[in-house]
Amino acid sequence: MPELAEVEVARRNVAGWWEGEAAAEVRLLDAKVLKKGSARELEEAMLRPLVAMRRRGKYLWAELEGGHAVMFHFRMTGKITCETTPQPRFARLAWRVDKTGWLTFKDSRRLGHVEVLAPGELERYDALLRMGKEPHDITVDELREAASDRRQLKSALLDQGVVAGVGNIAISELFWRLQLPPEVRCGELSQAQWEALVEEMPRYFDEIIARSMADEIAYMNEAGGENIFEVYGRKGEACPRCEEAIERVKVAGRSTYFCPACQPPVNA
DNA sequence: TAGTCTGTTAGACA
DNA sequence: CTGTCTAACAGACT
Hints:
The chain is an alpha+beta fold. About 30% of the residues lie in helices and about 20% in strands. The protein has helices at about 5-20, 40-45, 125-130, 140-145, 155-160, 170-180, 190-220, and strands at about 25-30, 35, 50-55, 60-65, 70-75, 80-85, 90-95, 100-105, 115, 245-250, 255-260.
């Protein structure tokens, strides 16, 4: 599951499931996922009607009547699904909405978290304050300014302070589309390549979002696990563009999949 | 089996 | 500043 795209799909789904209602019942199934606020505050907040579901980067939050917010971060394995029972496997928090069923925050690895924010705290939420612009809003100049020349482009794009929501999978896919080598440094990109990157980022996310929404409808969530990416997770398979075998390397500490033929090193 | 991999992020360290 | 490693954690894969 992708990054910004997965969270945006979750936002749209949850907004539809929960829209205009208050939860009828809240169950905190694993108290350790609640990183800020008390179980009681969480319950009181969620029992108020939903005002809006919002997203910034990979952060997702619910705004409730009365001014509280409930913040979610999925990290690696978190997700929100709609269930018929309140305690499916890996459920950490569940709330029942009459018209829909049990909305469930699941997280097998328990790296994700939930926070209850009192009125006004959202405006002072550090991760949001430090976050770069969304891929859909950032300009070429803004991106170049945030990414210093010597830094690896991958490292810069993974930095949420540079641009919001880009994750490890998106990097492999974007680099393949733009034919950039995995370890390319920011200073090595031409103006045209910067422009292409700024154009391709929102396009990539829009495509994955559209695809994920369609899959949700087709499979009623709980994806079948088919790899929808061009190169990510496809080591040894043929490049869709040139048939060369896809390789995997570690850059910025994370796996990057690339085609050695159509993404050659800059100095080659 | 045991070891290795994993979509994130913050923080320690060289 | 930069990259690398680790810790959170637990399951899937080789």
